[in-house]
Amino acid sequence: MKKKLNTTQKNSFTLKEAIKILKKQKRKKFVENIDIAINLGIDTKQPDQNIRGVINLPYGLKKKIKVAVFTNEEKLVKEAKKAKADAIGTNDLLKIIKKNKKKFNVILATKDTIKLVSKLGPILGPRNLMPNLKFGTITNKIYDTVKKIKKGQIRFKNDKNGIIHASIGKINFKYKKIKKNFLKIISTITSLKPNKVKGQYIKKIFLSKTMGKSILIKILKNKIKKYNKN
User: Residue 87: which domain range?
Assistant: First the structure.
């Protein structure tokens, strides 16, 4: 569930300070995620200003990600098995998804199965799971793609309010790992700034735990160099 941002929060903290605060907060019975919310100065009504992409975080998420692969080529089936995909198939896999028998975090499709997978549009579309060339989930590079996703590849896109929500690690990660993952997503989103955005692009950055309150991170417009010093 996406948290409502506390945009009236006056106090802001460096990344290092924010992580210390999060680590001191009361712990739950499970290892919570560290979530990031990035408020962008974009006009979401303009298609060319919406931000989306895929990132391979340096230290992943240490989270079990279930991947299903649509393919009927023997070679690619072997690659999927070797990469430890959770489900592989064509019509049989389609039936499993239609009946909602198993939950998957990512669906991959080889180019020859696109017509078949398109039948799942009404089911996968609302869940943001429909294979897409832009996200690299329509591909014949099955082994490498599955391995990257399992390691901690994340997809992101802004919501209708121009905010990107994502997880960047676990609360038990060391600061260095959280920082590297943080910098990766910020630098990636910075590089995707639309040409038509002339004002402040990254307006606010918040960090929180899965069940915690959000903390406003100090930023200097859209510059991130200062974080390299922490």
Answer: 67-152
Rounded distance, CA 12 to CA 23, Å?
17
Give 196-228 pLDDT, tens digit per residue.
Answer: 998 889 999 999 998 888 999 987 544 454 444
Tokens of 144: 């490498």
Whether the per-residue pLDDT at 9 is higher than 60: the answer is no
pLDDT at 102: 84
DSSP 3-state of 161: coil
CATH code: domain of residue 211: 3.30.190.20
pLDDT at 40: 96
Do β-strands 52-56 and 202-209 pair in parallel, antiparallel, or remain unpaired? unpaired
Q: Which residues pair with 52 in a beta bridge?
A: 157
Q: Kindly provide the residue ranges of all beta strands, DSSP E only, lying in 22-150, ordered along the sequence.
A: 33-40, 52-56, 67-70, 87-89, 106-109
How far is residue 131's CA from residue 138's CA, in Å, rounded to a whole number?
Answer: 5
